[in-house]
Amino acid sequence: QVQLVDSGGGWVQPGGSLRLSCVAYGAIRSIYVMGWYRQAPGKQREMVALSYETLSPTYADSVKGRFTISRDDAKNTVYLQMDSLKPEDTAVYYCNVKLTTGGTRWGQGTQVTVSS
Questions:
Q1: Residue 57 to residue 52: CA distance in whole angstroms
Q2: In CA terms, which of 7, 44, 52, 70 is 20 to 30 Å from 77?
């Protein structure tokens, strides 16, 4: 079993920055992709960024050049550095991992609000 604990959300003004963190516990050797998704009110959950063990990261077009995903495998942690935040980035952000067994796990979500 893998459990995820994500954190780091909050309120920020447009143009500001936040860094999200997600720590994985349990059967971490089964993880091969770590990433972030988000869900805004009334919208479907969407991929924000994915980090692979050996491949280059993947980003949604809407966040390219503003968000950076990174991982520290020694700490079983994935980060999402969010810069130049916009009101449309407001959403609940969820950590996600994909497992070699074919399963997937989600964090509990952390709210990000961008407003003046």
A1: 6
A2: 44
